[in-house]
Amino acid sequence: MKNTLIERLVRYTKIDTRSDGSTGLVPSTKKQFELAKMLYEECIDIGLDKVKIDEYGIVTALLPSNTDKDVRTIGFIAHMDTADYNSENVSPRVIENYDGKDIVLNAEHNIITDVKTFPNLKDLEGGTLVVTDGLTLLGADDKAGIAEIMTAMEFLLDNKDIEHGDIRIAFTIDEEIGTGADAFDVEGFDADFAYTVDGTELGGLEYETFNAAETVVTLKGISVHPGSAKDTMINANVLVNEYFSQLPSDERAETTEGYEGFYLLTDTISTIEDAKLTFILRDHDMAKFNARKEMMNTIADKMNEKYAYQAVTVETKDSYYNMRNIIEEDMSIVELAKDAMKASDVEPIISAVRGGTDGSRLSYMGLPTPNLFTGAQFLHGRHELAHVESMMKACEVIINIAHLNTQGEL
């Protein structure tokens, strides 16, 4: 299993599947189809049924039940796209028997993954790592999840004595830009519940995410010649500072943790006459989430009253909601994952995601979908790596979920 996982992960990561939220296309980048076609063929080659690649590049397949018991159909889902970071010419390197010390990714450019910055490297000592050459991300988010699902399905096909019900798998698009679930055919997927295999450290099990929104604040200034600007010019650059300064400084992403929500200014375009601020708003609690959205409007109202014209316009669009609200209606799927981890000698670590997954959207679309660990760490940049022993445990957990689902009430 170990060598198979490494081979799959390395092969998948070499395909550039970076998504791009600016294109307006579905998928956002056509290069995601390259990996989709590879996975489509691989699903057929290992013997899965009902293998399909749809018009959007989403790959689905079925591992048919081998039991006479009437059990629920499980789905396992991972996304093919990678984050907004250089993903061209990914060159993975395998480190065997890691010594727990700083990792020189690229000596020429002095790029080092150091223990001081990433102290949990010590926990990986003695293991096998897949790392980058320091010039790109790895893409283990979420190609580690894809490799684990494929390897688990192949294992079940080769070990027919392991009892399981119908298992559906899917490899999705554009998760990193939050739009991939829009194209997902939940009804056609035909699963009772699912798991995204898209977490990080060993034992991670998540069924709670942020509520999320994007807010665009448009500011209109009045531009005149600076020589005659007194009492006439209203500088949109100054309006930017005035608006931002009214948000709580202790509720920014860089000052919060755990269940603390935040306001994050992601982009600024500004001239004297026009400015646009793009924010993301996050909170696990729905009431606090709604209060954050209202805060954005309240600041605008105050500034418009002060300047006596429509100086500030606010537009907010919800992105996804906390999937706990759906999943807690039937916690048996969380208990099933916990039991599967314990059967693999993995201690479940329940935590709230400070972000979202495809499961956030899918849960509200009728497919309750908690999130499982993959063994990938330090995501979305040059220091990203995959811990192969954790990947092996993720495979075991998938296999155990499939089997324990046939064993009656939990």
Describe the secondary structure blueprint for this structure.
Blueprint: H1 2-13, H2 32-46, E1 49-53, E2 59-63, E3 74-79, E4 93-95, E5 103-106, E6 111-113, E7 129-131, H3 140-158, E8 167-172, H4 186-189, E9 193-197, E10 204-206, E11 211-220, H5 236-245, E12 262-270, E13 274-283, H6 286-307, E14 312-320, H7 324-327, H8 332-343, E15 349-350, H9 358-364, E16 371-372, E17 376-377, E18 385-387, H10 388-404
Helix pairs in contact: 1-3, 3-10, 8-10
List unreliable stretches of 5+ residues.
none
- Main sheet summary: 8 strands, mixed
Q: Spell out the helices and strands N to C.
A: HHEEEEEEEHEHEEEHEEHEHHEHEEEH
Report Rg.
23 Å
Quickly count the helices.
10
Query: How widely separated are the two ends?
Result: 29 Å
**Biggest sheet, spatial arrangement of strands:** 1-2-8-3-9-16-10-15
How would you sum up this structure in a few lines?
By secondary structure, the chain is an alpha+beta fold.
Give an overview in words.
By secondary structure, the chain is α+β, with helices and mostly antiparallel strands. Helices cover 30% and strands 22% of the residues. It has ten helices and 18 strands. It has helices at 2-13, 32-46, 140-158, 186-189, 236-245, 286-307, 324-327, 332-343, 358-364, 388-404; strands at residues 49-53, 59-63, 74-79, 93-95, 103-106, 111-113, 129-131, 167-172, 193-197, 204-206, 211-220, 262-270, 274-283, 312-320, 349-350, 371-372, 376-377, 385-387. Strands 1-2-8-3-9-16-10-15 form an eight-stranded mixed β-sheet, with helices on one face. The protein has a four-stranded antiparallel β-sheet with strand order 4-7-18-17. Strand 5 (103-106) and strand 6 form a beta hairpin. Helix 3 (140-158) packs across helix 10. The longest helix is centred in the C-terminal third of the chain and has 22 residues, at 286-307. It is globular. The protein starts with a helix and ends in a 6-residue tail after the last helix. The mean pLDDT is 96.
